[in-house]
Design goal:
392 residues, alpha/beta, Molybdenum Cofactor Biosythetic Enzyme, Chain A, Molybdopterin biosynthesis moeA protein, domain 3, 4 domains, 6-stranded mixed β-sheet, binds ligand LQZAQKY5, binds molybdate ion, metal-binding, transferase
């Protein structure tokens, strides 16, 4: 059986990033950058005032000065300012030639054209001035290929002179829930049936990523139904099935994939929960057969589906970030599979829920972390280090 690391590497190695596309900045949020952002301009392009007041030369203190004009944002004062002279200035305006400091208006007394200091404290050179290039210089690399475009990253790209950016493509993901016991969420269930909680859970997990998701509904446990349902999704980049991934008589995902001529890249990974994960391909479509147990589906989606979507969409660090924390209580030694315990993390201190049955949803609904118990890890006591993934 593949280890977690091997299985994640194999999955990403068989995927091909989607072609990039140019998008206006207003449509770039959450996408992955497909080219570096290299500043097309220097910011600020000139020395600017950080406050409303008066620009003058610090060498001419303590004044008084004669106010000879005005520099406003977008309307610079075009002339040189001489000894004994000052210019009214506003936040964001060019500091005129001949000036090296800004006297804020609260510290000034203005009488007609005459300006005096309001007090005895002298201004230092460069006070209240934002230096040209203080934020970035033309030609500098501001954002690297593959990063996620946050609002701040989009703003810096705009300031750097970009109106559009090349970003990764949006993978299309189809979700199929397999099982005769399943009903659509909200439908009445007798005691032989359950709501398909996996479908809305997976849609929610994908909602923060640049991808398009289709809920393909519930498929009954027959070879024909599953075959047809999978064939109907072949335009997708990824088909996700949940349920039917194990070895029971009604677990049909693997036999149906074989019947459809799929390449089965791997089946079963040394993780708990989530062992029966199936990864296969038909043409360019990657099929992820997630186990049906809700927590197993959640964990395998976190470890495999979301990284695959991120990778296809152009992310260069698609795997979930592993964080370091400390245990709030003892945990048993690790076994032959990497365990992922639903847990609560507060200020880096992690407590796992006592109920870890992969069929249960209440611990998952309260968890904000998955604690990682590596293969063959020694038993640990409270206060010892532990690694975890954040989940939201
Ligand atoms: N003899 C063995 N039995 C099982 C093994 C094994 O190795 N040998 N593996 C177990 C593990 S681990 C898991 S996980 C499950 C995975 O089973 P399947 O992927 O085949 O899933 P199902 O049997 O269809 O369902 C399991 C469980 O989850 C419920 N379910 C299914 N779909 C949904 C959904 N959309 N929303 C909510 N809940 C769902 C289903 O009703 C079952 O209770 O196999 C073990 N068995
Ligand atoms: O992996 Mo199953 O996912 O252990 O319940």
């Amino acid at each position: 059986m593949l280890s977690l690391d091997e299985a994640q590497s194999q999955l990403l190695a068989l995927a091909t990033r989607l072609p990039s596309q140019s998008k206006p900045l207003s449509a770039c949020s959450g996408h992955y950058l497909a080219e570096p952002v290299i500043a097309k301009r220097t910011q600020p392009a000139a020395d600017l005032s950080a406050m409303d007041g008066y620009a003058l030369s610090s060498f001419t203190q303590p004044g008084p000065w004669r106010v000879i004009g005005e520099s406003a944002a977008g309307r610079p004062f075009g002339n040189e300012v001489g000894a004994g002279e000052a210019v009214r200035i506003f936040t964001g305006a060019h500091v005129p030639a001949g000036c090296d400091t800004v006297l804020i208006q609260e510290d000034a007394i203005r009488d007609g054209a005459t300006l005096k200091l309001n007090g005895s404290e002298l201004l230092k050179p460069a006070a209240h001035i934002r230096r040209a290039g203080g934020d970035f210089l033309e030609g500098s690399t501001l954002l690297d290929t593959g990063i996620k475009l946050t609002p701040g990253a989009i703003a810096v790209a705009a300031m750097a002179g970009y109106g559009t950016l090349n970003v990764g493509g949006r993978p299309h993901v189809s979700i199929l829930a397999s099982g005769d016991e399943l009903r659509a969420p909200g439908e009445l269930c007798d005691d032989a049936h359950i709501p398909s909680s996996n479908t809305p859970m997976l849609v929610a997990m994908l909602s923060g990523l640049p991808c398009d998701v289709t809920d393909c509904g519930i498929v009954e446990d027959t070879m024909e139904a599953l075959e047809t349902a999978i064939q109907n999704c072949m335009q997708s980049d990824i088909i996700v099935t949940t349920g039917g991934a194990s070895v029971g008589d009604h677990d049909l995902v693997e036999p149906v994939l074989r019947k459809l001529g799929a390449q089965i890249d791997f089946w079963k990974v040394a993780i708990r929960p989530g062992k029966p994960l199936i990864v296969g391909r038909i043409g360019k479509t990657i099929i992820l057969g997630l186990p049906g147990n809700p927590s197993s589906a959640y964990v395998t989606a976190t470890l495999f589906l979301l990284p695959l979507v991120r990778f296809l969409a152009g992310c260069t660090a698609p795997l979930p970030k592993v964080n370091n924390g400390t245990l709030n209580h003892a945990i048993a030694a690790g076994g032959k599979r990497t365990e992922l315990f639903r847990a609560l993390e507060e200020n880096g201190v992690i407590s796992i829920f006592s109920r870890q049955d992969s069929g249960m949803l209440t611990p998952l609904s309260m968890a904000n972390a998955l604690l990682i118990n590596p293969v063959d890890a020694p038993a640990r006591v409270a206060g010892e280090p532990a690694q975890f993934l954040r989940i939201d």
